[in-house]
C-alpha cells in the first residue's frame, strides 16, 4: 500500500479525516471508531477542533488497514501494534498474504465458474455493497435494523433491495454521489438553505430515497434531516467528508424549508 501524500503543499504534515478516508479507502465513521477505541488516535486538531492525522498516525493506520484486510480482529491488531517496527509489521503482513495465495487461487476458479452461470441474475452480497459504497452503506446495518426494523419503511426498503443487482446498485451509488456532491457545491457557493436551488437539491434527494428504497413523504424527510445533525456520525459524513463544516446543518435546514413549502402547497 502506497503512502498517503498531500499534493497541495508538500510542507504540510497533517491530513483531515476526509482526506485520509479517501486516500486509504475507509469510511469517516470507521476512522472515528478507531479513534474512540484508541486504536488510531489523530495527534493534532485544527483551529476549528477537527481531527488531523500526522505521518506517524498514517503509518499506524496503514498497518491497521492491511491487518483488517487480512481479517484480523481489532483486539489482535491492537496487540500486534504494541510491539515491532514498520519492517516487522510489513514482513508479518507479507507472510500472511503469501499463506493465503494458494487458497485464493482455487477460489478464483470456483468463483469464475459460478459467475458464468449467474451473471445475468446476480445479487450483490453485503461485502460487495461495502466495496461499492466505500464501506458506509452497511457499516451500521445492525444498528439501523434495531432502530427501524419494525417500521413499514424498513420492510419496504428490504423488500425492494432483494431485487437489485449490480446494475441497480451501481446506478444508486452514482446518483448518491451526484446528489451529495451538488449539496456540497451549493453550500460552499454560499447559497442559502431557503434558496430554490437548495430546496430543489434536497427534493431530488427525497425523490431518490422514494425511487430506490421507500416512500419518503416530506415529513419523514424532515425527520431524516434532523438525524443528520443529532447523530455525530451522520454529521461527519457531510461536514468532514466534504471538508465543509456546517454542511449537515445546511442540508437539514434546506430539507425543513422544502417540507414547509410542500405542506403549504398541499
UniProtKB/TrEMBL annotation:
Transmembrane segments: none annotated. Residues 14-83 form the HTH merR-type domain. SUPFAM superfamilies: Antibiotic binding domain of TipA-like multidrug resistance regulators, Putative DNA-binding domain. It comes from the Bacteria. Keywords: Activator, DNA-binding, Transcription, Transcription regulation. Coiled coil: none annotated. InterPro entries: DNA-bd_dom_put_sf (IPR009061), MerR-type_HTH_dom (IPR000551), MerR_fam (IPR047057), TipA-like_antibiotic-bd (IPR036244), TipAS_dom (IPR012925). Signal peptide: none annotated. This is MerR family transcriptional regulator. It comes from Barrientosiimonas endolithica.
